[in-house]
Amino acid sequence: MVDVDIDQLVSQLEAWNAAYRGGAPLVDDATYDRMVETLRELDPQHPFLQGVEPEKFSGRTQVRHPLPMLSIEKAYTGEQLTRFVQRVAKEAQSMGMAEVRYEVTPKLDGLAGRDDGTLLASRGNGLMGYDISSAWDKGVTPVGGRGQGLGEITVVHSYFDQHLAGIFEHPRNMVVGIVSSDTLNAHARQALEAGMVHFVPYSRLPHWEGTGDQLLDRIDQIVQSLAEQTDYPMDGVVVSVCDHALRARMGATTHHYRWQIAVKRKGETAVTIVENIQWQVGRTGNVTPVLEVTPVALSGATIRRVTAHHAGMVEKLGIGPGARIEVIRSGEVIPKLEKVLMPVPQVNLPGQCPSCGSDLTYLNTDDNGKELFLNCSNPACPAQIEQRISHWFRVLGNADWFGIKTIQRLVAAGFDTLEKIYAMNEADFNELGFGPVQSRNLADALMLSRTQTVEDWRFLAALGVPDLGVGDSRKLLQHHRLEALPALDAQTIAAIHGFGAKTSQRIVDGITRIGETLAHLLALGFEMERTPLLSEKTAAHSPIAGKRIVFTGKMQRGSREEMQAEARRLGADVQTAVNRSTDMLVCGDKVGAAKRSKAEALGVTLLSEADYLRLIDGGGQDAT
């Protein structure tokens, strides 16, 4: 009977691990770790416990690590950490060491990897990883440059909370999707283009150093201090022995190094009752639920509101007034719904928009139908108007002072379009009760937004047309001027590489909706840096005009971003990864063999940086 139970337990652990490595965890870390410890108690020699929980990236080349990338032993209690320190002290005494010093660093919750400057490898099974160097071409930023060893691919925590928390359940989900997929969704692409997805070397993390006694006495303060210094998702801290001779003496198991341990907290949880659900309307009309709960103390804060992400979750889990729920708050992590302990027998979803009263419809926001949002299709909805105006100022990025509270006051007073807002002066703001200093700042901000240079693709992306983020806005403006966009039809846009038929129709519909606003803003004379058209003389006479180019490796002439910008000015279509449509792969220093092989297999022209520069400077080979 015990054997059967163990087999079932291992099967469950394997399924949970596969889901986690694939970016779609089925349970929280603490539940998984607790079941691992249960297996360790029943069968400490089980093969599952003797190695690193494996991950797999289909279609990627396997590479061998020069040193094993092992897992980390975990301590959930003060007693477990104390036993680790005592074990280390015993080994140190046998070596004649009087004192042991420890280093504590944040434990990032991302995708572990190793960057040797030539390729980026995932952890894999600890001995063999996968070549995931394509992450660089997709826009992952190496903090501190390339070749800094072990680290983690993750997303800036504050950016994730502000822009993506209602779209991805966890930052790791998005990171795994970026690494494993050849096609990026719009949200991941935006995060990459904003420079918010990083490979963070462990050597670049903030750290604390001290003795074993100091560690045990101050562990909570140490964790809190490191969390405050770290703007990345954390999953505890890592405690490591500093002395390398002692590290060598302690060695490793097949699963973890004995001189290192992760201190994790499940996170304080609390049980509360849902009192009400507030439905919030976003820029695109998606209506999302926020749970108003009976106030409960949690990790030093009083929790009154908890996100439930989307209507489908509310309906599936039976969430409504009277539902008994468990919420969790772990260190720097915002409060979230952990589980529903007692659902309500009937869930009543709103039928009308809470802002404008229009009928709501369901809208699937992913291909699997897992995210079901209620949607308001009324473009005159006040809440949508507020969010669209907020999106404009946030993406344009050159006008401060227009926060959501200010925008809500303007919309409520009838200043509900960009046309009306840009017609305002200091006196208008004063009349609305903003006060002399704020009124002057708001008027100055409007003036600066028109006179400070902004890229035309950023201007277009700020208008909030569906499917036109900054990347696709730039691509569209390589073919058509801003002023010409309202006259385009879907077929014309679909003829541009990278725009599908359905996407093109949504873009046309979106541009039609904002056509008058676009014309009005252009008439105000915004100072813009124009994207060169492929048909312009500078591009038409360029040997790379119309070519689809990927840059990879470390460049000597400038940063990769500078090289990409120059190529765009010369009419090239810059891509982030090699595919069948790519014409040219420009290779800087330390480019992996796998990337070259893929390009060669697809018939892509390979150029060194020197050959490429000779080409664009007029002295090189033909690019066909």
From TrEMBL:
Keywords attached to this entry: DNA damage, DNA repair, DNA replication, Ligase, Magnesium, Manganese, Metal-binding, NAD, Zinc
EC class: ligase
Cross-referenced CDD domains: BRCT_DNA_ligase_like
Residues annotated as binding Zn(2+): 353, 356, 376, 381
Catalyzed reactions per annotation: NAD(+) + (deoxyribonucleotide)n-3'-hydroxyl + 5'-phospho-(deoxyribonucleotide)m = (deoxyribonucleotide)n+m + AMP + beta-nicotinamide D-nucleotide
GO molecular function, one term: metal ion binding
Keyword check for NAD: yes
Record-annotated BRCT domain positions: 539-617
InterPro entries according to UniProt: BRCT_dom, BRCT_dom_sf, DNA_ligase, DNA_ligase_CS, DNAligase_adenylation, DNAligase_N, NA-bd_OB-fold, NAD_DNA_ligase_OB
Active site annotation, chain numbering: 107 (n6-amp-lysine intermediate)
Xref: Pfam families: BRCT (PF00533), DNA_ligase_aden (PF01653), HHH_5 (PF14520), OB_DNA_ligase (PF03120)
Protein family: Belongs to the NAD-dependent DNA ligase family. LigA subfamily.
Protein name: DNA ligase
Source species: Desulfatitalea alkaliphila
